[in-house]
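so my prof wants the structure for this chain in the tokens format not the other one, which i didnt know existed until like an hour ago. anyway here's the sequence
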Amino acid sequence: MPYQNNIPLAPDQLSRSQGDINGNFQILGAIGGIPGVNNSSGINVAPGAGFNYVFLSNQALIPPVATFGADVALYNATNPAGPAGSGQRELYISKQLNTVGTVQIPSTASILGNSNPGINTNGWTYLPSGIIMKWGIASSVVPRVSVNLNGFGPNFTQIFNAQVTCQSNLNPPTNTTTISPLVNLVAGFTLYIGNTPASGQINNFYWLVIGR
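here's what i got, hopefully its the right format
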């Protein structure tokens, strides 16, 4: 029986509408958590099963960790404004991470919340897993150039991987670079440049860092 949004009407007798009312409550178990009712096919029968959308009202504060415990939860809250956040309402995921316990992940937060990054600019984004990605560009300076990972987007507590790609207007590129070891270097890293750019040569280095 599909969900009926006009039960009961004023002239309906309880004895005749009781079954319809009970059916509506059973269907709404997809929202209320009635055991065994785990889909919304009865609520939205056309064009198919599922909700057209789910509206999550904005929370005044990010709920404390103990609110959800080890359960996975979704909620809407405002990500802190400033260089480390988007300042916008974001979809948060409360979930367990193996090494740090329960975390609150602003899964939709990125630099797009507070800036419209252009070509060759720094940027950042969260992934729903809790992983953070940052990217940017460094100019070629001999013998080394430092990359600061703080000051934009959330700071890393651990870096998993960093990749560097050389930009050159020579074919083939004449520059080489190596990256410093990343052990505990969560605030930044150093690129070691192999040689001085030739006259008129463009030599920048695009970098991408993945961590949490």
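also thought this was worth mentioning. The domain at 118-211 is CATH 2.60.40.3940 (Immunoglobulin-like).
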